[in-house]
Each structure stands twice: as C-alpha cells, then as structure tokens.
C-alpha cells in the first residue's frame, strides 16, 4: 500500500501534502504530535575543551570549558548534527534515516539503515557511554566518552558494529545512533570531541524506528527514546556537555519517554522539547507505551517549515530507498493530532520538573 502511495505522489511534485495512509489512530492516546516554530535566535554554551585531570581525583574546577555560541534560523539548534538515544527495556527491530539533498528537494533518500539480527548496517553505528574500555576514553574529570556498543548493548566493542545485534536493549542500558562518518580534521564536528565520535544527521532528517517497550521486573527501569544535539555525546552525555535542558541548552527532543515517579503512568510515553528557548511538550497527552506489540515512530525534523513531527505509524517498508517530500509533508501536516508551538518559553508539560532527574541518573 505504502509504496503505491509513493508512486502516486510523484505525479504531484510540488503539490500539497499527500496524506499518508499509515498513521496510527488510537482512541485513548496521542499518535501525532507536531512542534511548530522550533528554531530561534539565541545562544548555547558550546563545550570547547574538557580537561582530563589527573588520577585519582578531578581537582580542576573549570574542567568543562564552554563559550557562548549564537545560532539562528529555522530549526536551530536542531539543524545541527542530531543523535537518537534509546534506554531499555526496549527491543528495536529496524531503523532508517531519510534526508533531502537540500531543504526544498522533492525526494528524501534513505541515508542510513539497520535491521536487527542483520550482520550489516548502512551508515549507522550504535554507540554507548562506556568509553575507556575497548573503545573511546575515560578521564578522571570527563568520565566516559562514547564507545562502540557491543552486540548485546551492555558494554563496549573495539570497532563499530563489530557483531550482529539482535536489538534487545536490557533495562537500564542505553545506546545511541550516529552515522559511520567519524569526526576528524578533514570532516570536523562542531564543538569539542573526544574518544570515538561520529557525525550525526544535520539539517532536515526523518528517523523511522520500530520498537517495543516491554515491562521490566524492576518497575523503576523505564524506557525512553530521545534525540540530542550530537555535541552532547561527543563530550559526555552524562557530565560536561551543552545539554542544559533549557537556558543555554543546545537541543534535546524527548520523543517517547516513560516516566517513573509518583503520579506517573507507566503505560504512557511523553514528549518534550528543550533548547535555549525553554521547554514545552505533549502536556497532558501521551503516546501509548508499546508494551507487547511493536510500534513505529517516524520523527521528522524539517528545516523548510521549521517544525518537528512525531507520528506513530501502523507499518513501514524499510526497503524503500526514498520518500517523496509530499509524503513527508503529509506526516508534518497529519490531522487529528496535537500541535504545540515552541514560539516562546512557555512550559506546557508539567509532568516533571524541568531540571528533573529523568535520564540523567549517571551524572559524573
Ligand atoms: C535541491 O535538490 C534538488 C534535487 O537534488 C535539485 O533539483 C534542486 O536544484 C536543489 N535546489 C537547490 C536550491 O539547490
Ligand atoms: C545489508 O547488505 C545487503 C547486501 O549488501 C543490502 O542489500 C542490505 O540493504 C543491507 N541491509 C542494511 C540494513 O543495510
Ligand atoms: C558486552 O559487554 C558486556 C560488559 O562487558 C559483556 O558482559 C557482554 O558479554 C558483551 N557482549 C558481547 C557480545 O561481547
Ligand atoms: C575523516 O572522516 C571522513 C568522514 O568520516 C572519512 O571519510 C575520512 O576517511 C576520515 N579521514 C581520516 C584521515 O581518518
């Protein structure tokens, strides 16, 4: 069905959005969420150096050195390199990333892909935060850098994608995806990098991923999917970084996060967005946690319309190598969902305190 729609849409190049036929609808839960007026003019504290320090303890008070960096424009700072992070318990069966060759291109091509249990991936590397073991680095002030995730997603590997990954992310473990392009002198990454640092996906991009979020025997172990400015992981996701969750922050989008705390619903997955503009989110609405049945999230970051959409899909054909702009516009314009303006520093979601301790448990 879906590929037929893609073919039909080529007849409508430049026309209005073609309504995709695979957007999930549920009676009791959010399935489409759109953030508008995402970008802004402002500044975030870019990490410029992370002083390693000397064993046995960090005695350098300003080990996390930053400078205020001004950015502006559509999607800013989410037009920077972006990584997507996952916390278990979760199973991930497929991921694909699509990008246009420029902001207004009529086709978004698959630039990265991975299938659970497959021995290959295309321009996609799973990392985790265990630097200092088999890959990456650790320092007394900086803590762990990124490392290449090993096949069971609970430790590091010496090389990227070194073994088959079956897609089972244990409770409490985290992985994040980046491209296969390393940060180096000829292909520089913005800000400070160390250890094993790879580029994320910049400018417009669509992430499609099929996941389940099963219950854990320990109810306090709750799953989450979130996107970060990749600068956060290039320094230290837990430690010295530009995240800040709000004022002076370089960008975070919680795509589907289950919260654990008094009053939190373990069957709900919320969304929130943070940048130097402030924070807002899905408020009293939430996606349904896909406990037993896999679901597919499509997350579009669109420079042209300065918006981000999260849609839950009934299915996705991961073999399709391109999607038309018209279909992407259809996801951005999905009716029957919720639209949240990020035009001002208003906080809509009071599900937790803005500086809450959600997935920052491993602070160094
Ligand atoms: C954008 O990309 C499309 C397809 O590759 C191309 O035809 C078009 O000329 C490009 N536009 C700009 C402004 O570069
Ligand atoms: C794996 O490799 C095969 C053969 O090269 C290719 O057709 C397929 O698309 C690849 N799969 C992924 C997920 O990259
Ligand atoms: C991954 O690392 C963990 C922690 O060191 C280890 O227990 C596990 O066996 C490793 N998995 C693989 C496939 O190497
Ligand atoms: C630098 O990174 C680019 C992109 O990942 C890669 O193509 C190139 O081979 C790298 N160069 C070196 C010297 O590692």
Automatic annotation (TrEMBL):
Instruction: Please give the Pfam families that the UniProt record associates with this protein.
Output: YJL171C_Tos1_C, YJL171C_Tos1_N
Molecular functions (GO terms): glucan endo-1,3-beta-D-glucosidase activity
Spell out the InterPro entries in the cross-references.
YJL171C/Tos1_C, YJL171C/Tos1_N
- The residues covered by the Cell wall protein YJL171C/Tos1 C-terminal domain are 107-326
GO biological process terms, alphabetically, are:
cell wall organization
Alphabetic keyword roster: Cell wall biogenesis/degradation, Glycosidase, Hydrolase, Signal
What EC identifiers does the entry list? 3.2.1.39
> Start and end of every Cell wall protein YJL171C/Tos1 N-terminal domain?
32-100
Catalysed reaction, written as an equation: Hydrolysis of (1->3)-beta-D-glucosidic linkages in (1->3)-beta-D-glucans
The organism's superkingdom is given as Eukaryota
Indicate the secretion signal residues.
Answer: 1-17
What family is this?
Belongs to the PGA52 family.
Protein name as annotated: glucan endo-1,3-beta-D-glucosidase
Species name = Daedalea quercina L-15889
What lineage, starting at the top, does this entry show?
A: Eukaryota, Fungi, Dikarya, Basidiomycota, Agaricomycotina
